[in-house]
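User: Fold this one for me? It's dihydrouracil dehydrogenase (NAD(+)).
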Amino acid sequence: MLGFCAINTIPSFFGFDLHTLMASGGISSGFDAVEFMLLGAPLVQVGTEVMLRGFGLVDRMQQELREFMGWHGFTTPADFIGRCRDKATSFEKLLSTNDSRPHLLAERCTSCGLCHIACRDGGYPAISWNGGLPEIDHAACTCCSLCSHVCPTGAIFMNFATE
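Assistant: Here's what I get for dihydrouracil dehydrogenase (NAD(+)).
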C-alpha cells in the first residue's frame, strides 16, 4: 500500500516526469505490476520474488499482463499507464486509516531474527530484542506487514489494533 502512495506522491514532490520512475517492492504477480502501472509507473522491478520462485515467475507475470490487457481491450501498456493516478491517496491518509498492527505470539517464536532483519533493513526499525524475543514498537511501525510475511512460524501476525 505504501508503494502505491509513493508512486503517486514522488513525481509531484520532486517535480519530475513519471517516465523516469520505476516501481518496486511487493510485486509478486503480473497483476501487482499492473497496479503500479495504473498509478503511473512505466517500469516495474521484481527482485525478491524471482529469488524465491525462480525465473519462471517472469513468464507467468508476462502472461498475467497480457490477460489484463485483453480483458480491458488494451493493446500496449501505454494504453493504461497512469489511468488511476487520481484514485491514489496520501501517505498520511493511508497510515491514519490503517488499523492493522503486527502482534507476537511468543510461544511460536523461535528467535530466528528474520522479522528484526526485515524491519531494520526495510528502513523502519520498529522491532528490537527483549529477552530473546522480538519487541514491536507500534509508534515506529508503518504496518507494512513485512515482519509477518518473513516469520516462518506465524509468530508475528497482522491484526486489528485494540489499543
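One thing worth pointing out: The chain has seven helices and six strands.
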